[in-house]
Amino acid sequence: MAMTEQEILAGLGEIIDEIAGVPADQVTPDKTFIDDLDIDSLSMVEIAVAAQDKFGVEIPDEELKNLKTVQDVVVFVQRSGVSA
Amino acid sequence: MGTDQATVVVTGLGATTPLGGDVDSTWQALLAGRSGVRPLTQEWAKELPARIVAAAVVDPATVLDRVQARRLDRCEQFALVAAREAWADAGAPQVEPERLGVAVSSGIGGVASTLAAYDTLNTKGWQRLSPYTVPMLMPNGSAGWISIELGARAGVHTTVSACASGAESIAYAIEMIRSGRADIVMAGGTEAAIIPLNIAAFAAMRALSTRNDEPQRASRPFDKGRDGFVLGEGAAMLVLESAAHASRRGARVHAVAAGFGYSSDAHHIAQPAPDGKGLVRAMTQALADAGLSAEQVVHVNAHATSTPAGDVVEAQAIAAALGEAASGAVVSATKSMTGHLLGGAGALESVAAILALRECVAPPTTNLDDLDDDIDIDIATEPRPLRRRGSAPMAALNNSFGFGGHNVALAFAAA
Fold first, then answer.
1. Staple partner for B229: which of B2, B147, B250, B305, CB 3.0–4.6 Å?
2. A50 touches chain B (CB under 8 A)
3. What pLDDT does residue B5 have?
4. Cα distance from B339 to chain A (closest Cα, Å)?
5. How does the average pLDDT of chain B come out, rounded?
6. Nearest to A49 among B68, B70, B128 (CB)
7. DSSP string, B174-219
8. How distant is the Cα of A30 from the closest Cα of chain B, in angstroms?
């Protein structure tokens, strides 16, 4: 069963809070990871691995660099969920 | 010291140790003769021959921001905690980033993180390794993190020389300021290696005390009954500054970082040369470099780890280096209380030597019940007042020696 956008957003908020110390309520769809949330590329790798575990999706390295905003990840997880 | 070189002073101190989470609590415990050594009660220690350690009193992960703590090896956490204290103690000086340097080292580096990462690799695969694994295991990680925190851009250095690492970093920092590369350098050492492999490996060398039934009496430098060192952990940092810069900003000066001496034994990878000539050279060079006479040396914080071979060689070397003036130098072996912080030792003992000069009191050497017959120096077993001889300022030496044959002596003078 595919997760709703809200569920993915909430899950992502928990991950980013844990790994990067950004409060979950700041993790809104329009935010960019690097400029808005001040997350570096090393932490993005950690977040991606945690997101793979949490959402049961595969995020290939070549895809990771395209995920610039929170919304990008939400959409990616939703699409992966549909195709899975 | 040439007249064209800057005089270097100590304007900040920081420490987190087996005796306290800061400099003041550590110093008070040293004066009180308190031991930081405790039994290891963990299941993993049961089969080890040495089951006593001097763990840090304050877990650095509880002091740092949660996210920062998870990216740092424990040795880096200690270093950052001590550096923050030292920086605050120095009055958080305004300094151009290009004139601020860092010289901080560890004898071993992030060994706990290395082993944990290896377990992760074997059980969960490479994808589950933290992307911060490399910065956690590299020995220069502590120096790098401190430079980022302080915005230090004059240069970041890590002088790895086993148990002399902390002292060598301080010497390197003095050189950086003298040569004009920096006005201020954060210098010190850190270690966090109380883990099964490390204890087992030192035990395999028969280097550790196995006085498991009497933890607080196990570290007994210069005593006949000494049987090895007790592993400690923690960090200590000094803010070193050119005297001119410190004077311009009206900084409080703890002591003068007067000079240093290096030598190497080229004898054995893990044993001191029995003639102690390398140690003597390090001490005499430190005094010459500092422009100090042996008569000015009222205090020596000895390396004295409580090993059978090392303590005697050092005691005899102190006597030889100071000659007739040795009788006026009060020697303290603070590892009797702190255990051996390895790469952190030289920095912590420099802090102790500086405070001894500032407060005019030498901390005690505990557990010295029965002095080794081959040792003839004046060792404080109680806190001992320090008084200058003649009109010249009081001075103190701090010795540090490391596996590999490294000998480093630092000379401090009263401000």
1. B305
2. no
3. 77
4. 35
5. 97
6. B128
7. HHHHHTTS-SEEEEEEEE---SHHHHHHHHHTT-B---TT-GGGT-
8. 23
Domain chopping of chain A, boundaries: 5-83
- The architecture CATH gives domain A5-83: Orthogonal Bundle (1.10)
Does the pLDDT of residue B183 top 80, yes or no? yes
What's the confidence (pLDDT) of residue B1?
Answer: 44
- Is the ipTM higher than 0.90? The answer is no
**B155: Cβ–Cβ under 8 A, 6 or more apart, which residues?**
B101, B102, B176, B181, B182
State residue B4's pLDDT score: 58
Express each pLDDT in B7-26 by its tens digit: 999 999 999 999 999 999 99
Which candidate from B66, B67, B127 shows the least CB-CB separation from A49? B127
User: Which domains are assigned to chain B?
Assistant: 8-248 (3.40.47.10), 260-414 (3.40.47.10)
Helix A70-83 with A5-20: angle, nearest 10 deg: 130
Asked if A70 and A9 count as a contact pair (C-beta separation under 8 A), the reply is: yes
**AA letter at B196:** P
pLDDT exceeds cutoff 60 at A84: no
Alpha-carbon distance of B396 to B415, in angstroms, equals 12
* Alpha carbon distances (Å) from B362 to B28, B29, B305, B355, B388: 12, 13, 18, 9, 13
